Amino acid sequence: MLKGLTIIIALIAIATYGFISYLQRSPELPEIDYERWWGNGPKVAEDGTVRPYKIEFNDTMIADLKSRLKNRRPLTKPLEGIKSEYGMNTIYLEKVLNYWVEKYDFKERANQLNQLPRYKTRIQGLDIHSIRMKPKVQGMKTLPLLVLHGWPSSSKEFQKVVPLLTTPRTGHDFVFEVIAADLPGFGFSEGTNKPGLSGLHIGVILRNLMRRLGFNQFYIHAGDWGSNVATHMITVFPDEILGYHSTFAISFRPYSYLKLFLGSFVPNFVMDPKYVNRVYPLTDLIQYFLRETGYLHIQSTKPDTIGVGLTDSPAGLAGYVMEKIGVCTNRDQTNTDHGGLAALELEDLLDTLTILWNNNCIVTSSRLYAEGTTKETRIVDNIPTKVPTAIVNFRYEVLHLPEWMLRDKFNNLVHFTFYDYGGHFAGLEVPKELADDIFKGMVAILEFNKKKSINL
Question: What's this model's pTM, rounded to 2 decimal places?
């Protein structure tokens, strides 16, 4: 009897070890076409020039937008006692729409956006827009930093951060040259008419953009979908990317999911007890995602359908986009009229809406949800990266993961910080704190790379 029980226990142990080993395996990098053509029609010779670009909100667009807003149908009022629990509070939305028509200065806001130098260049058939700002310094190390946004944003998200990163700081012997790019189909970057443009292939485009700009090695900061793109980049191009800083780092390795589940039994052991409630209990996390990710399912399956209404109605676009921005800024404020938007400046929100409307890119940006997960991306997701990584956790970030889980993907996690405030759109809400942490993270990354070069 005892002998039989021992055999059973041994078999279970062997099976468990084999299962964990299977989950931990790292696949080979799939074959990737680094010159895949995403432009209209067949591949043609490409103009490699980098052209200065100026944002313009022209009179025709402004008149049409204001006309649509003024002639909108009456919005349905919230239920009695309901603020933003059912979604966008239409009483609050009415105030925003009226401000957009009557007080938002389109020309002045365009001038503000044009304070940062902007460029376009064609990469793999698509016109890619980016801010490129060089520091005005001598005698300091200048680190090229590619900065990437997510949905429904653009490089506008970093308008306040870029000057902070390009300004020298006491106690630091380096400063950044910032390239803040619009993802293809977002902001002022051209979208594709071909299926298959996942975050992995966007990463290839942006790597080729950096090479076009003269950078064979560089650093990255990213959030939201930009983090998805950047994570693919540091996996596929580990010798070209010297360091990565993120507000939204995720490990999609199967082993990590197992660790996330196991951590729920001993959360205070796997995380700093002060921050356990950002991840556990998992039931709260699941309830939150069930409540707030309906848009994700729609955009992952039928982005073109929802895009019809959002493309035709600026009021509909504002309600849809602002509601998600508010929840991602402070999900605990659905019991308010603004639903979390009070932490952001109204002019910044309207800049984002105006860029979406002016460039008619709500559909092309939303399609990334449908294109984001492919067999290729799942393989790359399961390959760990050695690129030194720094992560900052703002209080209301959409998702937090324990450090021991993130190390499955980011083997060299050199900096991990928590803030007790701030949300998903940190560049708009807390630009100083974001810039501060990028500098701090870079110090740790540079130190790691220095030690690595000495050991070699």
Answer: 0.93
